[in-house]
Amino acid sequence: MPGAHRSVGVAGTHTVTISFAGFNRAWSAWITDRLERRGVTVRQQRWDPPVEIPLEESLRDLTLAQGRILVILSDWYFQLGPRSHDEWNRALRAVVAPDPDRFAAVCVTTSALPGATSVFGAADFTHVGADEAERRLLARLGLPADPLPEAVEARPGPRYPAETPQVWGGVPRRNIRFTGREELLSKAYRSLQEAGPGAGVVTLHGMSGVGKTQLAAEYVYRFGSEYDVVWWVPADRRALYRQKLAELAPELGLSTGAEYGERLRAVRDALRRGDPHAHWLLILDGADEPDQIWDLVPTGPGHVLITSRNPEWSEHNSDLVEVPVYTRHESVAFVRRRAPRLTPAEADQLADALEDLPLLLDQTAGWLNDSDLSVDEYIGLLEGGIDQDVVKVSADFPLAFQTAWSILLNKLKDTVPESVDLLRLCSFFAPGSIPVRLLKEMPPGELPEQVAGLMNDPLLWNKAIGQLRQYSVVRLESHEAGVDGASSGESLYMHRMVHQIVGHDMAQQDRQEFIDVVRRALAAADPGRPIDTRLWPTYAEITPHLKWADVLRSTDPAVQTLVLNCLRYMYFSGEYRAGIKLGERAMTAWRELLGESHPRIWDLSYHYANLLRAVGDYAGTEAIERAAVDHLRAERGPQDLEHLRAASGLAADLRGLGRYDEALEISTWVASSYHELLGDQDSRTLNAQNNLAVTLRLLGRYQESLELNRRTLDSRRQLLRQRHTWTLSSEIHYATDLRLLGRYGEAMSLQNQSAQVHRRVLGPDNPQTLRAEFNLALCHYRSGERTKAAALFTRVLERCERVLGESHPLTMMFAAGQSCFAREHANIDQARAISEKAVAGYADMLGEEHPYVAGTRSNHALILRNVGEREHAHALLEESLAAMTRAVGENHPWTLGCAVNASAVRNLVGDPESAAALTDSVVTRAVEVLGRTHPLTLSARIAHAADLRGLRERQKAEKIESEALGDLVATLGAQHVHTVSARSRNRPYWDFEPLIV
Fold first, then answer.
1. Which residues contact 476 (CB under 8 A, 6 or more apart)?
2. Is it the case that residue 415 has pLDDT exceeding 90?
3. 3-state secondary structure of 282
4. Which of these, 692, 760, 693, lies nearest to 722 by C-alpha position?
5. Which of 376, 682, 696, 820 could disulfide-link to 678, CB 3.0 to 4.6 Å?
6. Confidence check: pLDDT of 385 > 70
7. Beta pairing, strands 103-107 & 303-308
């Protein structure tokens, strides 16, 4: 009937063309979605008319589009060009006013617009919600507002742009002068949208100053409405990146404790699963070293946007979008927006002189707009140079850059001189985020006079910061609550190019004064407890600034203590590479500054050796620790506590080198001395007790190690908190001993619970967490839970390779375990490839005579046996048995295990007599060393029975087998995988397991 509304959700005759500025793309996307649900055909047309074409002509071109033209009115729409309000008023009166029914509009800004925009009769979207905005849109277009069918309404679509994503953090303020870059934004958007799940990673890469960060921020504001979570993370330093990513946990509503590692694990797991939010966007800003953080880039259904100067991100499953300097058109448009007093010709001149570099154009045009200087005069200064007596800029930069910066800094010096002092002070922090709150927290008397006034006068501070922000020298970081609800404090962001320029050619007196202030500020921020995981975020924030404050040249005891604490933090948090670099530089600097035998040198050498030992440089650390031991014993006597600490380190080095008897002698003496001097409940005594147990385990004395670790664990649980790093480490050691003694159920129960706590407290990628999970994988394996073991072995090895590298001792330890499992239950080719790498890695690191080389060769020989290379396997096993005997003696469990494997292959190559003789000897020694019912002894007994059957001594074989099976049932249970295998007369084998030193 007349006037009846047509059905919604069905394609009709309505067509609408939306004209929008790129800045308002989110509004265009939302309007398009709402109209298309009602069957309207929508065309989107970005408005960016060439400046050389008259505005009236560009508006007439709009009328060539299909259907009604819906204009999204914003101040940005009218700034493009830029065009004056007078120009707009004339064009609107000439084009829109004569044909008002052809045009409609919505307004999304409260800013003043050209007066003639009233001709649009725009629907006002400001300060209204989505439902009201849609009602006003439909009314303006004369479309029915009937309710949509439930199925159509339920269809997912873009978020209403006035509503921010549910989780939003760290994103810089929007740059209202952002210009151009439309093609780059579209390319990044397409790459992310077209990527499959888990593969949505795009890197914006280009040289410093081209605007990568600004481009990423604009991407967030344009497309952020499509996400439920938008989280911006500084990624120039691994530790800081981990800290900021962990801060996302409470924002996602994840139930975690306060521990840093627990939050980090929970965040990465939640992003991977897409729970509670599948539509997430993570921005990694300044990730210039892919090797440092690529393993921490989350996977899952969301997207990751990276800014970096390094194109090597392409090797880590990221699409690259190169960000060049501005096109000349973009440069001119930007300069005119930044400095409206300049003509297009002058803007072109300036852009040419500054080579279209966005950062320099931003800073120069900003102050040039406030200056009386003409563009010709300014370019004359650039070409001819200026008097740089007041402010100098390094000659390392191109001439135009040097001079432009000299002009800008002199301008700042004339207007707010304190702002230049603040800049110079900031240059002794690392570039990027600068925690100026550390300076504000210092007593006024410890600040230079010119800066003290700035820090203590809020009006002067705001004036200085305002001036620096106005010229884009710094930006003020957003003040957002930390994980505990407290303010994260005030920070400035300084671009690395600005940082580098400001830091050059400073007067020596100013340099020394400013650097001392920053050193004292960093030292004052030291929490003093680097082993406490709850304080790791603080150390993650401090450590990047050590280099820039040149702390290694300081004689201040507090600053030196800060260096030692940071090294200790890096050791416990697993930041080995960064710690070794710092330790190496500190050793060189402090020896020069303090002398070879200063007490600080021995403190430093201890922490440095810990880091080197963690990556397997045992020969290097032995030299360092032996020098310390010899000097401290001669100077202070054997009972000196620092001498004992150095001796304990030396014992660890000897363990790494496979010299276990020497290590035992030192470890026993150190533990006894600590007990005598400090008592049995001091943490140092417990550490020495722990190290003695490690040595006993390496010697195959598992029961003694177990008893010692049990006492240590009990004491640490009482003396330290349950989640303390050392308490958790004791749980790994105790569970390991239980497993090595065949008490698999007890080991599994303890290690399963401990691994969960490790992940929460230390994080999933901490080396100690990886050790806990690897031991859990071995517990599953020995208990016959192959599916769980398979997943854990694979996950732990992959993570360790990413985090620590393929040649790290932990990686090789995990690889040895994975290859043994793969040999029996997975892929023999995979087992062989992993095993070959492990054998070669240990030989390179430790030398041919080390027991780990003999042990992994024994494992590899079993793979060769399984693929039919019997002769090769035989030769390798005999060689391994001889080498292991030389290394640790004939009665060590490792030697006995090699012998069990060698006997099997002797049978295969036709030497059953020697096989039986060998297993007979092994059984006798194993019973003496390990006991009659130890798993290795039981394997040797079953193997010996098989060898006797091969010699047709069936009666004796039956008796030995029957007794062994009875002991297996009594010890492990009738259905245990080892019992079932022995009952089926599968020949047992032994896997060599490298142990932690």
1. 465, 469, 490, 491, 492, 493
2. no
3. strand
4. 760
5. 682
6. no
7. unpaired
Cα distance from N-terminal residue to C-terminal residue, the chain: 89
Span 278-300, pLDDT tens digits = 889 999 998 988 888 888 888 88
Euclidean distance between CA atoms 790 and 135, whole angstroms: 57
Q: Around Cβ 710, how many Cβ atoms within 10 Å? A: 16
What token pair was written down for 486?
């407290």
Q: Is the dihedral of CA 21, 22, 28, 30 positive or negative?
A: negative
- The structure tokens listed for 450 are 């010119």
With a cut of 70, say whether residue 400 has pLDDT above it: no
CA distance 3 to 10: 18
d(CA 286, CA 292): 12
The per-residue pLDDT for range 20-55, each reduced to its tens digit, is 988 788 899 999 999 999 999 999 998 888 877 888
Would you state the structure tokens that stand for residue 569, as one six-digit string?
A: 């933090």
Chain centroid to CA 125: 41
Cβ 614 vs Cβ 607: under 8 Å: no
Query: Which of 960, 956, 900 is closest to 932 using CA atoms?
Result: 960
Q: Is the dihedral of CA 137, 142, 147, 150 positive or negative?
A: negative
pLDDT of residue 390: 36
Residues 6+ apart with CB under 8 A from 458: none
Question: Which string of DSSP letters, residue by residue, matches 217-257?
Answer: HHHHHHHGGG-SEEEEEE-SSHHHHHHHHHTHHHHTT----
281: which strand partners?
230, 303
The length of the chain is 997
Q: What is the CA radius of gyration of the chain?
A: 35
Structure tokens at 456: 């203590």
Is residue 410 a contact partner of residue 392, using CB atoms and an 8 Å limit? Answer: no
Q: Can you tell me the distance from the alpha carbon of 218 to that of 186, in angstroms, rounded to the nearest whole number?
A: 12
